Task: inverse folding
């Protein structure tokens, strides 16, 4: 049984060790990029089936972001959508034999959480200004300042560990079961793994939205709620 | 527990690149096409709204024109009707006036004829009454035609006003017309009656006048005292005519 | 034996960590799901919002169990004392 917490580099490019998650991530990037390019090459006013699915996906993300933040989802659409899509595809990549999801390694999750952390800072400062954003740490009173700072770090850390623990434990359990009974037995567990992967992708995206929404100032939605399709 | 920092950095870069790729090839085009469709839908809706408004306006205009035509027609009809009414009134008034005039003429004519007839009848009746009285008196003695009237004449003279009575016979003899030449006795009786009434002697000049039928007529200067049938008949005739 | 003792203790610690660490989140998740079912039964039109909130809440609660699991795995595979 391999140690799930450590990874070995596959090869080196110069001094840079290239590990398996990086390679899988490259593959995912390539697949998503090619798919997006092909799918959005011929967009029309009257949509095809693929275009309808893409539009549904984008409008759903916009609707969720709008629901959570009560604001215009346009600046956050790409970030939240990319996080959701990448985690979903990465979690489901375990379906391909011999591939370990990149999210089952803490480095990938840490990279995602780091991006979210930077995004929280960026949007918070962009919305309130540096002083205004720093002032939110003193809410409700200045006594809360250390607690708020600790909360910033711990919630990012919990974001990492949550995703890592879920995906990694799924992979780990499947590998254990696989070593005990190779045929058919892991299938229900893999199905459960798919569900967990979807839910974790959704939760990661929603939590990122919640954190960003808490950081930015309250702005009224330019569109009324009735325009949201779902 | 070891964290491979190289992997962490690479993964961060990878996710950032993926972010750019998806923004470039997925989210931006899709959002653009959604916005375009919304704009197109809005444009179509606006267009439809504008077309609806235009149609509405055209309909209102047509309605107004129709109303105007109807009003004009109604006005014309009313005008023509008024004219016809006035013409009718005028014609009817004319006819009525003519009719009234004709009727008045006819009535006048009728009245005139009736009056003439009445007059003729009265005339005839008067003549007839005279004849009848004449015939009837023929059955009486000749004296009756004078003698019976002497007392009445004297009484009538007595009823005359004093001034009139005083003037009787002052200028010559009093002309007396009788239906028949009275006898001496009758003249004497008359003279006596007059003398008694007037309190003095008066001269009488008797003339015969058969048209009186029966009776006497005393002609003084200021008054004529009639006491004969002709006067009675004339009075009756006049009264009868007045009654008609 | 001394080296074996650390390994035995590590395995025991991992088992206890996962076993005990699962009790609290299990109870908490049970209560959360029960409350969410109650709310959806009362107000079915709010099911969408409730489900989203429920999933986020379950993930939060589940994170506690995952922490325990991570600690157990650390003890098993990344034990600094072995």
Result:
């Amino acid at each position: 049984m391999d140690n799930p917490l450590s990874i070995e580099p596959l090869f080196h490019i110069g001094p840079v060790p290239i590990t398996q998650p990086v390679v899988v991530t490259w593959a995912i990037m390539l697949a998503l990029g090619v798919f997006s390019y092909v799918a959005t090459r011929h967009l029309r006013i009257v949509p095809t089936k693929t275009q309808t699915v893409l539009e549904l996906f984008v409008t759903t993300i916009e609707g969720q972001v709008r629901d959570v933040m009560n604001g215009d989802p346009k600046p956050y659409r790409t970030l939240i959508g990319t996080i959701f899509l990448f985690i979903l595809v990465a979690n489901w990549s375990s379906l391909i034999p011999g591939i370990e999801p990149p999210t089952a390694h803490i480095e990938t999750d840490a990279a995602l959480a780091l991006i979210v952390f930077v995004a929280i800072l960026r949007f918070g400062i962009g919305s309130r200004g540096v002083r205004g954003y720093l002032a939110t740490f003193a809410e409700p009173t200045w006594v809360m300042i250390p607690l708020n700072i600790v909360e910033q770090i711990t919630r990012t850390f919990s974001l990492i560990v949550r995703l890592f623990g879920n995906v990694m434990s799924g992979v780990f359990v499947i590998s254990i079961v696989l070593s005990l009974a190779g045929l058919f037995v892991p299938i229900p567990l893999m199905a459960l793994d798919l569900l967990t992967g979807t839910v974790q992708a959704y939760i990661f995206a929603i939590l990122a939205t919640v954190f960003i929404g808490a950081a930015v100032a309250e702005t009224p939605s330019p569109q009324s709620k009735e325009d949201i399709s779902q | 527990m070891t964290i491979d920092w190289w992997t962490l950095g690479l993964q961060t870069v990878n996710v950032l690149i993926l972010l750019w790729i998806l923004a470039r090839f997925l989210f931006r085009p899709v959002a653009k096409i959604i916005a375009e469709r919304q704009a197109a839908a809005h444009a179509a809706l606006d267009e439809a709204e504008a077309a609806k408004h235009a149609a509405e306006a055209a309909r209102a205009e047509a309605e107004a024109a129709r109303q105007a035509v109807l009003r004009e027609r109604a006005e014309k009809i009313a005008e023509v009707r008024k004219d016809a009414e006035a013409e009718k009134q005028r014609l009817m008034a004319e006819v009525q006036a003519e009719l009234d005039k004709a009727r008045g003429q006819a009535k006048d004519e009728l009245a005139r004829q009736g009056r003439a007839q009445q007059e003729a009848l009265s005339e005839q009746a008067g003549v007839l009454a005279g004849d009848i009285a004449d015939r009837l008196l023929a059955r009486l003695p000749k004296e009756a035609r004078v003698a019976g009237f002497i007392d009445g004449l004297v009484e009538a003279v007595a009823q005359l006003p004093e001034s009139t009575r005083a003037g009787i016979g002052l200028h010559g003899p009093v002309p007396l017309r009788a239906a028949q030449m009275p006898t001496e006795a009758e003249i004497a009786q008359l003279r006596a009656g007059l003398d008694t009434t007037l309190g003095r002697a008066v001269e009488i000049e008797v003339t015969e006048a058969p048209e009186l039928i029966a009776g006497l007529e005393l002609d003084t200067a200021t008054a004529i005292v009639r006491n004969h049938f002709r006067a009675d008949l004339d009075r009756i005739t006049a009264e009868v005519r007045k009654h008609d | 034996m001394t080296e074996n003792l650390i390994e035995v203790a590590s395995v025991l610690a991992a088992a206890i960590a996962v076993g005990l660490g699962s009790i609290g989140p299990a109870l908490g998740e049970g209560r959360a799901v029960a409350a969410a079912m109650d709310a959806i039964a009362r107000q079915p039109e709010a099911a969408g919002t409730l489900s989203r909130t429920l999933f986020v809440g379950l993930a939060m609660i589940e994170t506690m169990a995952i922490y325990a699991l991570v600690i157990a795995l650390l003890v098993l595979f990344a034990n600094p004392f072995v």
Summary: The longest strand of chain A covers residues 9-13.
